[in-house]
Amino acid sequence: MAVRLLSKFRVLPEIRGVANVSSAAAPATLSDFDVQHKTPVIRKQKLIPKAQYGGRHAVTMLPGGGIGPECMGYVRDIFKYIGAPVDFEVVDIDPTVDNDDDVQYAITTIKRNGVGLKGNIETKSEAAYVTSRNVALRNELDMYAYVLNCKSYPGVETRHKDIDIVIIRQNTEGEYAMLEHESVNGVIESMKVVTASNSERVARFAFEFAKRNGRKKVTTVHKANIMKLSDGLFLETSRRLAKEYPDIEHNDMIIDNCCMQLVAKPHQFDVMLMTNLYGSIVSNVVCGILGGAGLLSGRNYGDHYAVFEPGTRNTGTAIAGKNVANPIAMINASVDMLEHLGHHFHADLLRRAIDKTVNVDRVLTPDVGGTASSTEVVDNIINNIGRC
Amino acid sequence: MSLISRNVFRALVQGSQHVGKGVHTSSVNCEKNVRFAPFGAMQPNATKEGRIKCTLIPGDGVGPELVYSVQEVFKAASIPVDFESFFFSEVNPTLSAPLEDVVNSIARNKICIKGILATPDFSHTGELQTLNMKLRNALDLYANVVHVKSLPNVKCRHHDVDCIIIREQTEGEYSALEHESMAKLYPRIQFEKMIVDNCTMQMVSNPNQFDVMVTPNLYGNIVDNLASGLVGGAGVVAGASYSAECAVFEQGARHIFSGAVGKNIANPTAMLLCSANLLAHVNLHSYSKMIKNAINKVLSDGRVRTKDLGGQSTTKDFTHAVISSLV
């Protein structure tokens, strides 16, 4: 007890030191990358100077498994073509090895670069003590918010048109605490951890996001009728924060109803806020509605780090190397990254080229109803750059 | 202070990770080179036709002659770069452009190529800071990177020297304390310390042991010059200064060579290498390679050599030889 108290006291002065500057407003001219690095925030992670030299950014690239490496190849081809001022530091993670050296190194590189672009990293081992590497990465970097921008491509045939939903997901705790044990033979307990501080952080992130991006409504998704304490806390926190944002409408919805509403009437949603596991499920539902895993890109944010990846976290091992994987998701992730770094010129250039390829030229891979190969899609995007 | 010295160290290690040893230039390497071509000049600061603007400071001494050589080569290779030229000098204060204008131009263009600025023996205004220092501080050009590399057919005592010297250049004589803590962030790069006196001795006796060196301001200056001497002198070593936002390309060893002004004998190799590095920095890799290959070819042939490399050729001869070797 005494030891615990002592350690608390040691932490306190640090917290006090930063608490009074935490809400400083950032000037409008700063890029998101600058905001993360130049404005004071509550420091859970130690601040490291940003990796920008002579106007070029260093970015960690984690190709991951499955279709990751080939998609990263396309991204590099495109970046080379448009001359994006970004230098990649590639870290390959061997999925078959049980030790964590590569993952730790990847985390170290993201800590010093501040920004990462990643495919999905496989965790082949099924041994209980080996934790998922994707989860380890998010937890160690304290990237508490995951953002998935779900916007319909008119060029892709889907049941619903003109969907524009943003899913914001708590990314580090909840059901993904990875605390499981067998208390009595045949009885497994799995812990779901919800903390007030993390719930508040992600809720604030959601409302700030809504405010900055001109969104009208935030929907908190939960199961507080059953999990009264854990999801109850999450819901309470978002309700409390909603009062600070009177311009933004707030409602809540139970996860099961939410799934039904999503497939039946998706247009009622604007920004959706939810805990970890629900986020995972709902992201995949929405991606499915909009045309599958190959289109959308997701963003992980912490106070200091940002990692960009394809929206649904699937490796696509079955189609790796066959030149049929849809490269759009990874390329979209790279556009998100360029925007985050403040390279809006290059981001716009690339975004327009992607939109034209999908919506006008309709050069699509089989997963979204086309017949083109991955490289044909990439070639078409490159041809469109600077011409639309 | 700590922030700056950390940054320098980071520049060091990041530089060392790039295969070709060109800092910030060579990391985007992919097998499929086919598609890489005329669209390289897509930069936010590019004009409608895709041309890039670059600030140009001819400098003092032989600077203007060397810069002219660069301009000739750029013209001959039709490289899409436009120069915004400023006469900037401390020894000639009445003609010099105001510091503010130059700084604004570099901040806007993000890139600059610069000859060496002479420092007068005594200041006209009683100020202690030189113009060079003012420029560096105004732009926060905290890291100076000099790539010392043996060139083909340049006769020297040592062969195959290839090391990068990174010098902190906006602060004073302390910083080493922080390096070790930064090294922990780069577990896959070997880190060792060396005292400057031993270092200079090691440099002249066994320079091949060095890969990337990071030094504080004064020692960096000394080591830069020493290392330049190892591979052929001030005329063949290129360097660059970096801030977070912009990059200024200048010779590695800063000598104005005032004895050679107007004599058409200075060696433009260093300045041309600088310009090639500049092109790579703005993603014009094919042009960059074109110039580097041409320089290597002229040096390997050995027929056109300037005085410092034991030849009789003029600056102009060398420039023309490079131009005719452009492929």
From TrEMBL, chain A:
Pfam families, alphabetized: Iso_dh
Where this protein primarily resides, as one coarse class? mitochondrion
Coiled coil where? Answer: none
Annotated Isopropylmalate dehydrogenase-like domain residues: 58-381
Report the transmembrane regions from the record. Answer: none
- CC annotations in GO: mitochondrion
The record's comment on protein family reads: Belongs to the isocitrate and isopropylmalate dehydrogenases family.
Which PANTHER family does the UniProt entry name for this protein?
Answer: DECARBOXYLATING DEHYDROGENASES-ISOCITRATE, ISOPROPYLMALATE, TARTRATE (PTHR11835), ISOCITRATE DEHYDROGENASE [NAD] SUBUNIT, MITOCHONDRIAL (PTHR11835:SF60)
Q: Which NCBIfam families match?
A: mito_nad_idh
Q: What is this protein called?
A: Isopropylmalate dehydrogenase-like domain-containing protein
Please report the organism this UniProt entry assigns to the protein: Manduca sexta (Tobacco hawkmoth)
Q: What is the lineage of its organism?
A: Eukaryota, Metazoa, Ecdysozoa, Arthropoda, Hexapoda
Automatic annotation (TrEMBL), chain B:
Residues in the signal sequence:
none
Which GO-annotated molecular functions does the record name? magnesium ion binding; NAD binding; oxidoreductase activity, acting on the CH-OH group of donors, NAD or NADP as acceptor
Superkingdom of origin = Eukaryota
Q: Which UniProt keywords apply?
A: Tricarboxylic acid cycle
| GO CC annotations on file | mitochondrion
Q: Which InterPro entries match?
A: IsoCit/isopropylmalate_DH_CS, IsoPropMal-DH-like_dom
> What is the protein's given name?
Isopropylmalate dehydrogenase-like domain-containing protein
Question: Per the UniProt entry, what species is this protein from, by scientific name?
Answer: Manduca sexta (Tobacco hawkmoth)
